[in-house]
Amino acid sequence: QSALTQPASVSGSPGQSITISCTGTSSDVGGYNYVYWYQQYPGKAPKLMIYDVSNRPSGVSNRFSGSKSGNTASLTISGLQAEDEADYYCSSYSSSTTPVFGTGTKVTVL
Amino acid sequence: EVQLVESGGALVQPGESLRLSCSASGFTFSSYWMHWVRQAPGKGLVWVSRIKSDGSSTTYADSVKGRFTISRDNAKNTLYLQMNSLRAEDTALYYCVREVAIAGIGMDYWGQGTQLTVSS
Q1: What is the arithmetic mean of pLDDT over A17-30?
Q2: Does the beta-carbon distance from A3 to B112 stay under 8 Å?
């Protein structure tokens, strides 16, 4: 299983919106509505931010939203805040019935 | 409160074996599929293995297939990862992770991880 492709880094100023892409294939992202996004601070465990493409778990800010088009999923953070500076990973169910993670994106708040 | 506490990480030599454990609490452990996910220093998340709630089904990443064995003891609320023939590239922080209860393969609770270092 090859990792899903994410940009290495994305940056934005406070208050702006940024979008992180996650590109896979028809055997993973494009084939299922099981795409997830995780936030990870340095030295901490990942936290689930989005499940099933666009749903937010309880307690996750509505500034985080997810979507998918074809083989590419996206995470949008609106009203960017300093606390959003972290690494973000996408993940998808795959045809091998296993999960596959993205390469990870470092978000920097300028 | 859901808690996952990993243990067993260590510094080992290439070719040696090690067993990781994950003690679960705060939820009905026997009802959930569980995973091990690893992260090498400065690198991304990599899925390692998954086990069904009753232990009857397991899957592995190609990189560990035949060397690692995932298992669980639902009476003890504990998840295990037996790792044999360890290689330098297995060096990573190993996370114990709970799968979401709904359909799909999301991971909603993560432990803090246990460090495995494979080096001579």
Answers
A1: 97
A2: no
Minimal CA separation from B25 to chain A, in Å: 17
The pLDDT tens digits of the residues spanning B14-73 come to 999 999 999 999 999 999 999 999 999 999 999 999 999 999 999 999 999 999 999 999
Whether residue B61 and residue A98 make contact (CB cut-off 8 A), yes or no, is yes
Three-state DSSP state, A5: strand
Pick the residue from chain A with its C-alpha nearest to B107.
A48
Which of A34, A98, A101 is the closest to B44 by Cβ? A101
3-state SS, chain B, equals: CCEEEEECCCEECCCCCEEEEEEEECCCHHHCCEEEEEECCCCCEEEEEEECCCCCCEEECCCCCCCEEEEEECCCCEEEEEECCCCHHHCEEEEEEEECCCCCCCEEEECCCEEEEECC
pLDDT at B49: 97
Tens of pLDDT along A94-103? 988 899 999 9
Please identify among residues 43-82 of chain B the ones whose CB lies closer than 8 Å to any CB of chain A. 44-47, 50, 59, 61-62
- Is the distance from CB of B71 to CB of B49 less than 8 angstroms? no
Kindly determine whether residue B105 and residue A103, on different chains, have CB atoms separated by under 8 Å: no
Q: What is the residue-averaged pLDDT of chain A?
A: 96
B103 touches chain A (CB under 8 A): yes
Question: Rg for chain A (alpha carbons), in Å?
Answer: 13
